[in-house]
């Protein structure tokens, strides 16, 4: 087993479960004095022992083992677990959502609802939350400090772990990704896959890690190690494409950069939670597992092994956490037994595979809302949905919420995402449905990450430092990555790069950026020499009333007459050469439209400036397709959703790019 797999992120599990509340002994004399860490002086009283300072987290006037930063983390964790009440442990096993003053789910440009946060932290003893704020970095730092100040007043002073969905890219979909808002902006992860450059992937993750920590964020609910095997799937943008070997290399680089080393999480790192274990993306018709109509994925044992491969890159890097998929997997067997027909968060076989075959001993965090009731409205995509209908208890709909918690814990879940019901864990322990030992094991894994991140010493950040993230030189790096990640699929007659002074007709592009690149925006189509048109991969809203279906791109991928983008390209092509800038959030079918464009640039999130950098030759595009582009919807319908790049006669194969 690699060294990184012996870590919880870094700690043998047996050592973590040493409990007891003995006082810290005097340290053994050392040749090198301990290095005094920075302490949060504004988050409670401090102690001075032998000339060193410590936080008095529980305010008892004594240095307890869990407060002593000189001790091994295993000892500190064991001591703290032994001091916690059942209610405090149950709260630790929840991963809530920080509500905002104007949004119960926290999607806000203002700030947190501090009264609601205090009720969850002080009342329910919850110490892990996702942030969905879309605010400037300084505001984010200030708001997260205020959350930590609430926690510092608690009985044991346990700090808050604040997580986030990805927020450094272009797509912002509630429940999957957030707005950039002051953080550096890079291509989607598909763009990094197109570049096939693990060193650049690691560089991005290093920058993102520094920006997260500067603003008080400690955990990345990413990367997506899922394979983009069905081209209709709406969640593929956050993956590394359809090739398992490429995805594995990029996942390993991503985790290494975020966590701060290639052997696991370090003090100034960001804990990563790789997702979604496993088989997510193998859904017939590409329907997503957030939805009742997309709850089943189908794949055989060979395909399951392929879908597992990218996760092994995360394991090699010592990833801190794993998030199971929502989906019920139909088809595979483990140890000769067919998988139970329940979502992966309830599936003891899939979590046994994770722990035993792959040696993962870190935290398992469920995806959001798996214990909630899926009501009639939740099951019917023809009925308007609100956040109240969000629930994904796939395969266990017949169980009560309490039974779902017990089944999840006993299957291997350590922490439940998107719910704040610690009383369910308490009731499960008291009824005998959940063992105290299993709770202690889960809590130890969660606390170990907090200790590794140094949050018990200093959970606060400096808003002035947050103001300095994303300096011009970093955004130039990000811009160059955007430009380079584009895929030049066609360049008939050497149209690109465009020459200075070319008069251009524009769609979806800022004329000021065009002028800054030496081109001349045309006032009318008749005056233009070349058209530059932004386009998107076609999609349908097949479930417009469903909460997630209304936000996801589903259905067809082919350009057809009557589509706004098709008609714009066709109209321009009658008058001049067309440069088509296509956002490939899904693999577009370009059979009907490709002949009309003289140049085609596929992108995976690109600003106007980066697009024009490529068009004018400032930064030559060097991306290669991370998935094939099929030739027809009939070919898509005939391919296996669990196998990547397997459609008949693709128009552009995997790896295409001039």
TrEMBL record:
EC number(s) stated in the UniProt entry for this protein: 3.2.1.21
Keywords linked to the UniProt accession: Glycosidase, Hydrolase, Signal
GO molecular function: beta-glucosidase activity
One Pfam family linked to the record: Glyco_hydro_3
Example GO BP: glucan catabolic process
Glycoside hydrolase family 3 N-terminal domain ranges (all copies): 119-448
Record-linked InterPro entries: Cellulose_Degrad_GH3, GH, Glyco_hydro_3_C_sf, Glyco_hydro_3_N, Glyco_hydro_3_N_sf
Catalytic function, reaction form: Hydrolysis of terminal, non-reducing beta-D-glucosyl residues with release of beta-D-glucose
Region annotation Disordered: where it falls in the sequence: 639-658
Signal peptide, first to last residue: 1-24
Keyword match S-adenosyl-L-methionine: no
Enzyme class: hydrolase
Similarity-based family: Belongs to the glycosyl hydrolase 3 family.
Protein name: beta-glucosidase
Species in which this protein is naturally found: Sphingomonas pokkalii
Taxonomic lineage of the native organism: Bacteria, Pseudomonadati, Pseudomonadota, Alphaproteobacteria, Sphingomonadales
